[in-house]
Design goal:
Elements: H1 3-7, H2 26-35, E1 39-47, E2 50-57, E3 60-67, E4 73-76
Antiparallel strand pairs: 1-2, 2-3, 3-4
C-alpha cells in the first residue's frame, strides 16, 4: 500500500474506489489535491461543508471548491 493510501486510510483492495466517512480534514484535502495533480495549494478557507482553495495545475492558476463530505473537486470562477 502506498503512502497516499495509508494517509487516506484506504486498504489496498479499496484504492481507486470512493470511500467517504464523515468530513475530510485539511490534511486529507491537501493530499487529495496533490494526488489529482494540483500544486501550490494555498489559501484554504472553510465554508460550511466546503473548502475554497487556490492552486495551480498544468501551469494554470485555479480557484477550487472541495466538498468535504463527497470529496468532489470543482473549478470555480
Amino acid at each position: 500500500m502506498g503512502i497516499a493510501a495509508s494517509v487516506l486510510g484506504l486498504s489496498a483492495p479499496l484504492w481507486g474506489q470512493v470511500v467517504t466517512v464523515g468530513r475530510m480534514s485539511e490534511e486529507v484535502v491537501r493530499m487529495r489535491l496533490k494526488l489529482e495533480g494540483y500544486r501550490n495549494v494555498k489559501s484554504l478557507q472553510k465554508r460550511g461543508d466546503k473548502i475554497i482553495a487556490k492552486s495551480t495545475r498544468d501551469g494554470r492558476s485555479l480557484k477550487l471548491e472541495i466538498n468535504l463530505v463527497s470529496g468532489e473537486i470543482k473549478v470555480v470562477p
